[in-house]
Amino acid sequence: MLFFTVEKLKARLEEMRAAIIRDTRPITDVWTCPAPGAPPDNAMSPPPPPDDPSWRPLKVGERWGGDPQNPDKPDEPLPWGMPVDGGHTHWLRTTLRVPEEWRGRQVQVRLRWSEEGHAGIEGILYLDGRALAGIDEPHPAALIPESAHEGEHEVLIRCYTPYPRPFGGLELQLRDEIISRLTAVMSAVLDAIPTYRESDPEKHALLDRINRAYNLLDLREGWQSERFAISAGAALTFLRETLTANLEPGQRPTILATGHAHMDVAWLWPLWRTRQKIAHTVATALHLMERYPEYHFSMSQPQTYSFLKQDDPELYERLCQRVAEGRFEPVGAMWLEPDCNVTGGESLVRQVIHGMRFFEGEFGLIEHVVWLPDVFGYSAALPQIMRLAGISCFMTTKISWNQFNRMPYDTFRWRGIDGSEVLAHFVTATSAPLKPNPTEAQFYTYNGSMLPSEVFGTWNHYRQKDINDEVLYIYGYGDGGGGPTEEMLELARVMSDLPGFPVVRPGRVEQYFQRLQQRVWNNPRLPVWVGELYLEYHRGTYTSQARTKQNNRQAELLLREAEWLNAWAVTQGAINRQADLDAAWRTVLLNQFHDILPGSSVPLVYVESERQFAEVRETVETVRHAAITDLTESDGNGAAPRLAVFNSLAWDRTECVAIPLDDRPRPVVAGVTQTVEHLDGTRALLVEASAPAFGYIAIDKVSHPTPPARFTVRREYLASDEFRIEFDTHGEIGSLYDARYEREIIAEGATGNQLVLYEDRPMFWDAWDIDPFYLEKPYPIHDISEWRVVEEGPLRATVEIVRRFGKSTIRQRISLWCNSRRIDFDTEVDWQERQNLLRVLFPLRLNATRATCEIQFGSVERPTHRNTSWDWARFEVCAHRWVDLSEGGYGVALMNNGKYGHSLLHNTLGISLLKSAVIPDPQADRGVHRFMYSLLPHAGDWREAQVTRRAYELNAPLRPVTVMGEIPAEGRSFLRVESDHVVVETIKTADDGDGLIVRMYEAHNQRGQVRLDFGRPVESAVEVDLLEREIGPVTVDGQTVRCNVRPFEIKTIRVRL
Is the dihedral of CA 400, 405, 411, 415 positive or negative? Predict the structure, then answer.
């Protein structure tokens, strides 16, 4: 029996690993300087010339890096050690001379870390001005090509340095390739041994072989001796011969391995750091490809390729060469890896369009895979969006993070809300210790290490073995990039030689999914998952960083409006400004990355995001103003200014419009008016207006205003013809009576509009999570500091209530309207809490076990009970503009203009209004927030009440605009949709300039015909997919286009007018 053999070999293996380096020569002539300029502008800028005075000599032990303007500034780390200021970029420069006796052997340059550790330093090494390799903690050295072994060569290293640290030094190292490979083989075998059972003969045979190999090593003169180096070759030969000697022929499962470096486009670092990470990751991948011809590397997100193309054209050109060879694989159809909960439907479409067009334009590749390994849940709208772009496959690992329930499948048909299906596959690698029962919960990873136990576990955990014997494995350092290491590639070479192990072979992701689809798609045993892929974790991402979420909602709506106006103007002969809007879209898509929009990044990310959204608003406003000018001036040049209202929705509307009054004369309008003051202190004139679908009308053309409602307003009582609201002593709604339908709305014994604070201290991920025990510590906000009547009609009646708690203030106005059944809660919060959650609750007098929630391009039903662990896990869900609870004949919708986190428990609807995490942003969400939520009591269900339309109206109110030109009395309309269950989401010019694109969706889960009336002759129309490729005909009849729609179908039409 071999006693302590494994322990002995592990100890010797660590000693052997150190012996890979056979000799070392310090590089003493090292110079450093800060990158010229300041971040973010200097992140990828070239170094100053060698004679620039900013260069200074750098000795081992001297402090370098950090803020060059304040080198003695103490560290100011955020959680997880990230610097508050984001860190700084410095250059190292030296001259390389390879010793003559080393030439022709493996020589590398290594950046040594100081005694204080690695300290987050990352960089890229340039040899004679050309990017050679990335430098980071897993990749501390770069191998010098033999072509540079003679003469002198300039070495430059661009280094990101979070803080000033002592310089650890640069050195040349002589490596022994044989010892390196022997170390990899022995490491692989030692890691594989625990995966075998004690009764497996392979376990004991492997241990015997590796022990015999070790006994061939001659260590009489130590690890650095020539005796050892010679014996290492003999030991390696022995292992190569004996490991494969007794491999039994037969079918073994296959692991398709692709190198990868998951790149968080922003997270614990700002965007400028990401651009550095992309360059150093790509340089590392290309560097390893020079030595490992079998190596395949995949990189997702066209945004990262676009950054690299701008930042380092030479490195990008080399990447393109490897793409052409098939070894560097662009993967994933989306512009980047976006959040798929909060992101709007049209945004998901644009993620696909911009992503696929980039990869096709740059590389001639048509992507068929949505690659989202690290996103916090997946909308049930995704399968249809994918299919309409020709995408058939979906990959993730994240759903394995579920807290309560493990997904029952790893390969399955995923069916969306409209019935579309795609092939979904989970990568099943796990970095957790291998468990004997593969059904136990595991966290799958996209950052594989290529350790044999992990590779074996990838197959062991996989649950569709009965229909598929090939699984995908992605390996390499990720999140912050980096990618595979040399040791991982050496381990990959050994893996297939291990008895009982799957065959590991490198390959391409696209080809893997093609084989998988051919193998399983028509197999009757392929399981089906219907609906969303809900992540039972990270539920706080529906709420964290509320300003970013509201910015995103606003940007999506503004772009929608501007594209319609631009398209309309183009039909009138105006200049097409769609290119400007496309650029703005790409900025919005960037900010939908799955750590930006969800609210899980450091402060600098949100400073930059705020600036970028402001730029989007500026671009959109420029295009919108130009389009409106082009449209209205064509109605009559030289006419006096007129006040018009624009309607960006597909149906005629009558509602009150708020016309700004500050710094301008009071406008002349028709009908009843009311002067109001908004929460921000600005004044406006309310006037009722009727505007045509996708059109505009002069406000003074309103000829039949609705008679004003009769309001009764007191501090504790607010009533109109439709509703009576009674407030209790805490300012909550003790009674909400529907006068039209003669029924009470608030649950018996309860109050509505409960504003409740909860302790919000998640166990693990502060900004990401809301844990179920938050319900144990509610703090109702009952203290009222002000309570007054602010508006008494004739168009709107409003009560204002101000509440103060802690250091925070809530100012809320509750309003009834003359012409709407909407009850508005216009809210301003000065939020100064830490690790608290603010929620509003409405207990309703309704009997329903399911609530309906709007998602992208439709809606889903979710349980309001907690019968099963699957129900319980959904204590917080994501919804867009509305949720609805209905019983037979009556219901209530809760709508909002920028919130996403909702709770649905029995008869109570709730919205998570604000969160206040301290990690990774200690000041997350502090400050003033303005938002609105609204109740919409209604007869019938949400379809009969047209809740989708009413929620659109809340989010896209009629817009007053001063125009120059005559406006017809009836106004002007670009398009009317004669179907009350179809929503037009997008009108834009076609990408190729040939006609217009109209994208709509069926919103009620019902079949029917839709009729589009353009008010002018239609030359031709065809149905197209999301990439605007023709699918088939539609009916054209004069000024109209007709087509049929299926439940929740997204339909895109190319129209030529």
Answer: negative
Compute the distance between CA of residue 698 and CA of residue 979 in angstroms, rounded to an integer.
Answer: 26
Distance CA 510, CA 1030 (A): 25
Q: How far apart are CA 900 and CA 881, in angstroms?
A: 8
Catalytic residue among 67, 191, 264, 374: 374
| pLDDT tens digits for range 830-878 | 999 999 999 999 999 999 999 999 999 999 999 999 999 999 999 999 9
Look at the alpha carbons of 98, 100, 103, 107 in this order and tell me if their dihedral is positive or negative: negative
Amino acid at position 512, single letter: Y
> Using 50, 70 and 90 to split pLDDT, how confident is the model at 438?
very low
CATH code for the part of the protein at 975-1057:
2.60.40.2220
pLDDT over 60 (residue 704): no
CA atoms within 13 A on the CB side of 920: 25
pLDDT tens digit sequence for 585-599: 999 999 999 999 999
CATH class of 712-943: mainly beta
Beta strands in 720-835 (DSSP E): 723-727, 733-738, 743-744, 754-759, 778-780, 784-792, 796-805, 808-817, 823-831
Query: Is 0.85 surpassed by the pTM of this model?
Result: yes
Considering the chain, tell me which residue range(s) the CATH 2.60.40.2220 domain(s) occupy: 975-1057
Q: What is the bridge-based pairing of β-strands 411-415 and 528-530? A: parallel
d(CA 736, CA 480): 52
DSSP assignment, residue 78?
Answer: -
**What's the residue count for the chain?**
1057
Class of 254-537 per CATH?
alpha beta
CATH 2.60.120.260 residue spans of the chain: 21-175
Element (H, E) at 458: helix 452-461
Answer yes or no: are the C-beta atoms of 507 and 258 closer than 8 Å. yes
Annotation says 374 is catalytic: yes
- Specify whether the CB–CB gap between 816 and 738 falls below 8 A: no
| 3-state SS, one letter per residue, for 597-640 | CCCCCCHHHHHHHHHHHHHHHHHHHHHHHHHHHHHHHCCCCCCC
Return the SS3 of 21. strand
d(CA 431, CA 452): 11
- What's the CA angle centered on 671, arms 670 and 677, to 5 degrees? 100
> Is 3.30.720.200 the CATH classification of the domain at 21-175?
no
Ranges of CATH 3.20.110.10 domains, the chain: 254-537
Separation of alpha carbons 60 and 30, rounded Å:
9
What's the whole-number average pLDDT of the chain?
A: 94
- CA dihedral of residues 890, 891, 897, 899 (deg, nearest 10): -170
Task: Write the CATH number of the domain with boundaries 540-634.
Answer: 1.20.1270.50
How much is the CA Rg of the chain, to the nearest whole Å? Answer: 32
End-to-end CA distance of the chain: 87
Report CA torsion sign: 761, 763, 769, 774.
Answer: negative
The closest of 1056, 1025, 847 to 385, measured between CA atoms, is: 1025
